[in-house]
């Protein structure tokens, strides 16, 4: 009955929106004198700033996937998962941590782990676990391969850049956007967002703002297990998520546009009503529990930034200042695991809190010389503080079972430079170098019955410095065919371990780890080698880009679990990742565009090192060997009614998840297909869509708990089931 009513509401809404759309559209056509349908004559050029200067993407000597504003809109991207499977050799897991939204982990070319892929919002670095709502973006740039020279630490595998629309100083504009949909096994979902651009003083001052609200229904049901001490009512809509937020930016430009100042504030709030994880297998949407405990969570962050630019005849000076704040809270029903541990059925709710504050400052000069030499010079400073806390977990009759707190302070300093030199009008060489100095100060305290004599407070400090070079070459075979090759080093910042030497000495000694080594761990690094071609044919109607690569990974940061109950990170072993990317776009006739992408990565341990945690030949976790994607877009008209069709399909190969077990749990391969069909007027469109057409439930990793895992009930981060809905957008 509920499903029939829900679909009835959807159908009624669809009819009303369609009627409104048709009325508005034909009224607009009468006013504008015809449809806005334009026939594509080729594939548009896209300008990117991947190398800190504006360049045509086909001229940049790097392997890059770019998703432009039109593609973001027509494919309905709203979050990272919507576009992640559309990028060759990008893989991800959702559930690397149980603390709120900290579980998202991104891998490029097989380099997986915390802080291996950089994420930027415009010029500002963000933690890789942050997932900004995809609103008001000009494009998304995915840079594969280490970006250690221009982007520094955390870009060891590559960098994902979200580039927003900047305030326009001349034209007033805005948009309104709404989505209503229904998810199989779930309920009705709703999304509303809008943006406005206001030029306050023509050519001098303007502001741009957007806001959004998004609700995604839960798809899980909680019921009492067979051994529950007391029955409780069935609970539906478990795992629902509400996100809301927005941004406002101003742009002041003066001295004949030589100086521009852009302050921006971005904020996002997320609320979940319960842990959205499946038991044992991804397509199990029933959570059987001993107790019905509140597992709500939140993830709140804001970003304040100030970008200043001064343009001279010989180049541009840029200053970027930012402050990022994030607060995450989470709660987890650990009753089953704790009851088995204590051999007594008892309710247990663990809570996790995470607080992060990051200040960053970058100064940069990008040249615009008249001769064959161009340079980029910069200095970078970042100070981060973070606190992860598990408050006391009180068990009736026993007291505090466990409590934990870790305070981390990291300071990063760097200077860098990169030069491009045109030897001839066809041949260019590139060289870059980054010098860095980092320090990490970690204080850990823990207590409770679970740690016994391991209770106490422990402090460690780690310091490190080094260089990251890059070398490259580009050769223009013709105006439309460019060859390139690169060798580059990337690194990930090291850190400190907070643990009890007095309690754990007997456990670390058989592993060959000295007391000094156990105190901290160093950066790990990669050397990447790639060669590729970027080409276009038939006046831009066919674009083919391909890159082959090899990445050698050294001193891998690995987690070592000690029998005393502590775990420490250590460096050890080597790995190698080899593969290729192939991307193709073709427009055989006006209005029709095909796209395809192939990514292949073979990432394995080659040397286990002294710790011998993983055997040679072991696959790097969360990295599929293959990911494939294909799409088709067609614009056509029936009479004066302009229509659009979009379809895409993605295949993600199987991988291993070792989030809880060293031997790993297999993540089966999966396919996702999406369809969209609608109208496309100049200022209004309405689209009917089906996401995950075949209702394939993806396994996105098993999730480490806040407490301990029940080995008989691994928790799986599951992809979203089939969703059917209507997407309407108006522009003014």
How are the SSEs ordered, and which strands pair?
Elements: H1 2-32, E1 47-48, E2 55-56, E3 64-68, H2 69-74, H3 80-84, E4 90-94, E5 104-108, E6 117-121, E7 124-126, E8 137-144, E9 158-164, E10 173-183, E11 188-201, E12 205-216, E13 220-224, E14 235-238, E15 241-254, E16 259-272, E17 277-279, E18 286-289, E19 297-312, E20 315-333, H4 335-342, E21 349-367, E22 373-390, E23 394-395, E24 399-400, E25 403-422, E26 427-447, E27 456-478, E28 481-492, E29 495-496, H5 501-508, E30 520-521, E31 524-537, E32 542-554, E33 557-561, E34 567-571, E35 574-586, E36 592-607, E37 626-638, E38 641-652, E39 655-657, E40 665-667, E41 670-679, E42 684-691, E43 699-702, E44 715-718, E45 723-731
Parallel strand pairs: 6-9, 13-18
Antiparallel strand pairs: 1-2, 3-8, 4-5, 6-7, 8-9, 10-11, 10-45, 11-12, 12-15, 13-14, 15-16, 16-19, 17-44, 19-20, 20-21, 21-22, 22-25, 23-24, 25-26, 26-27, 27-28, 28-31, 29-30, 31-32, 32-35, 33-34, 35-36, 36-37, 37-38, 38-41, 39-40, 41-42, 42-45, 43-44
Within CATH, the superfamily carries the name TonB-dependent receptor, beta-barrel domain
Give a quick account of the main beta sheet: strands, pairing sense, barrel closure.
Answer: 22 strands, antiparallel, barrel
Which residues sit in consecutive blocks of at least 5 with pLDDT less than 50? 1-42
- Average pLDDT across residues? 90
How many separate helices?
A: 5
- What do we call the CATH topology? Maltoporin, Chain A
**Shape field:** globular
CATH class: Mainly Beta
CA-CA gap between termini: 41 Å
- The strand count comes to 45
Derived structural class? mainly beta
Helix amount: under 10%
Radius of gyration: 26 Å
Annotated CATH architecture: Beta Barrel
